[in-house]
């Protein structure tokens, strides 16, 4: 991206990008994000996190207006009141059946947007925010959902991906975790990049004035979409390969290094 052209739409991933999971946003990154927002850029937190988990980060950043894309683009929310502007749902029942037949011990869960999570068991790193209800498989499909999570305690990420490549999840696409045997299924066609393009068109912002920063497999479509894409130094190899630029690691405030080119306190 030409450094003379300030980005007008900035998509920022959360975990591994804005912060290390379980740790706060650094003061430098927080200041850089706030400076971009204060200058009039549309700073859009674009994450795999649920609405409830995203809200914690947005509030920590001190952003009081604007929009966020949660659950890998399936949930579009106004951060001034945390009311969803768009929900992209699918019927999880067929996908639940396919996953259960191939992974009998997989822990499955669905998002209840703004309410909590219904799950068949515990899984590592789960954000137990709001209502956290233990249910049977049949209850997961009582209503359409924005996301279906799966964690496979019985195998490795590599084994899970190999088995999934042989399967089709009816009505849904999926993305796997960066290190753990974890997957998130969303409505077919929904991704961070897809949701950002919808938002870009709504805002009337040129593609050349878009910037995206991320580190994980679920950032692939977002970085491909952006006018200028930046991978964190700690990104997984495929993301490092496709990005236009590689910044410093998350613990070295890589996001701030990029934003400070255009935005200052």
Instruction: Indicate the structural class.
Output: alpha/beta
Strands side by side in the biggest sheet: 5-4-3-2-1-12-13-14
Fraction of helical residues? 25-40%
Q: Write down the overall mean pLDDT.
A: 94
How many E strands?
A: 14
Order of helices and strands: EHEHEEEHEEEHEHEEHEHEHEH
What general outline do the C-alpha atoms trace?
globular
In this structure, how is the largest beta sheet organized? 8 strands, mixed
Total helices: the number is 9
Bin the strand percentage. 15-25%
Uncertain segments are none
Radius of gyration: 18 Å
Distance between the termini: 22 Å
Furnish the topology, listing elements before pairings:
Elements: E1 9-12, H1 27-38, E2 42-46, H2 51-61, E3 67-70, E4 75-78, E5 83-87, H3 93-102, E6 107-112, E7 116-119, E8 131-134, H4 137-140, E9 148-151, H5 157-164, E10 172-176, E11 182-187, H6 192-203, E12 210-214, H7 220-225, E13 228-231, H8 237-242, E14 245-246, H9 254-259
Parallel strand pairs: 1-2, 1-12, 2-3, 7-8, 12-13, 13-14
Antiparallel strand pairs: 3-4, 4-5, 6-7, 6-9, 9-11, 10-11
Describe this structure as you would to a colleague:
There is one protein chain. With 265 residues, the chain is α/β, with parallel strands linked by helices. Helix content is 28%, strand content 23%. Helix 8 (237-242) links the parallel strand 13 (228-231) and strand 14. The two termini are 22 Å apart. The model has no long low-confidence stretch (mean pLDDT 94).
